Amino acid sequence: MNRINVRALAPAGILLAMLLPAGSGSAQTAEDEFAIALPSARIELREAPSASELLAPTQVVVLGTGTPIPDAFRAGSSIAVIHKGESYLFDAGAGAVRNAVIARYKYDIPSLYPSLICCVFFTHLHSDHTMDFAELAHTLWWRRNAALQAWGPRGIEEIASGLLAMNSVDIELRSSGVQPVQNPEGFRVAARTIAPGVLLEKDDLVIEAFAVDHGDVSPAYGFKITTDDLSIVISGDTTFSEAVAEKARGVDLLFHEVISQQGLARNSPGFQRYHDSAHTTSAELARLANIARPGLLVLYHGLFYGTEEELVLDEIADGYDGEVILADDLDVFPQHRRR
């Protein structure tokens, strides 16, 4: 067993997870109260969700809140919705798969084990949203019950084909040697190009895509996820969008990208023009939230550019009086469902 030790290390209150050897140090410290036990590497197989998984309430686990800027505290953009024993990922930025493993054990969610994740939906195909697509598709592919299913904008099938080419040597080596291969076709990705509308209906789960404006990146999508006990909208990367405001009207959880107004002012004129055309400032997000009035506004994929991260909450509070949270990696929602 390893221990993951979580402690605040930054003035902005960012949390860093560090893997520490079991039993390291003999004296108990104040940090030990934040430590959780995680198992070392293990193989997990499952034919179907358990009865307890099928009865569990819908949860959202934030696997990554970062941006293209490398960040020691935040993995690339990724949000997991867990419903009736399946995990549905929305984007898969760098580090998302490792965080899925941590969350699997931290919160006892078997479907977040990487080779058991069934599905991934991409808002758009910028690299900070797709870098862990390869890891998600091909980690333990020979042990997958079924190939990963992927939905995304035009280009998703080309990327899936590229992943197959990239890993062709690995596939040949494992398939032609003496290694047992449970699923000879487990490396394949079932990729689908999406358009606005309902993408998946399964029992009471409905996943819908809608178009958003991410500047010259087109098409780009947001997603609305509805279950019997939770409604969620994920904005993806977008400017102020009437579509997001309308889809998010009255939802339980709105996950929305944000760029700090103060941080934006520190940028060059060229980058200010770019961000104004492609992202949502804190002031614009306050305006959107006043239209949508979600139960909880959750900020992720935040661009701060040197300002203290928590200040973006003040910027939004200047124009919006609803509840707002700045998400960290591995946050769980609704919050009262933390385990």
Structure commentary:
The structure is a single chain. The strands form 3 sheets. The protein has a 7-stranded mixed beta sheet with strand order 9-8-7-6-5-4-17. A 7-stranded mixed beta sheet has the order 10-11-12-13-14-15-16. By secondary structure, it is α/β, with parallel strands linked by helices. The protein starts with a strand and ends in a 6-residue tail after the last strand. The relative contact order is 0.12. α9 (282-292) packs across α10 (311-317). The chain has 10 helices and 17 strands. 24% of the residues lie in helices and 28% in strands. β11 (205-214) and β12 form a beta hairpin. The chain has one domain (59-337): Ribonuclease Z/Hydroxyacylglutathione hydrolase-like (Metallo-beta-lactamase, Chain A), CATH 3.60.15.10. It has helices at residues 51-55, 96-106, 133-138, 156-166, 168-176, 242-247, 261-265, 269-278, 282-292, 311-317; strands at 2-8, 15-21, 36-38, 59-64, 78-83, 86-90, 119-121, 149-152, 190-193, 197-202, 205-214, 217-226, 231-234, 253-259, 296-303, 324-326, 332-333.
What descriptive keywords fit this protein?
10 helices; about 350 residues; alpha/beta; 7-stranded mixed β-sheet; disordered N terminus
Output the structural class: alpha/beta
Note the beta-strand portion: 25-35%
Report the C-alpha radius of gyration, rounded: 20 Å
Order of helices and strands: EEEHEEEHEHEHHEEEEEHEHHHEHEE
Number of strands: 17
CATH superfamily grouping: Ribonuclease Z/Hydroxyacylglutathione hydrolase-like
Read across the widest sheet, the strand sequence of neighbours is 9-8-7-6-5-4-17
> Helical amount among residues, as a percent range?
10-25%
- Count of structural domains: 1
Task: Specify the CATH class.
Answer: Alpha Beta
Number of helices: 10
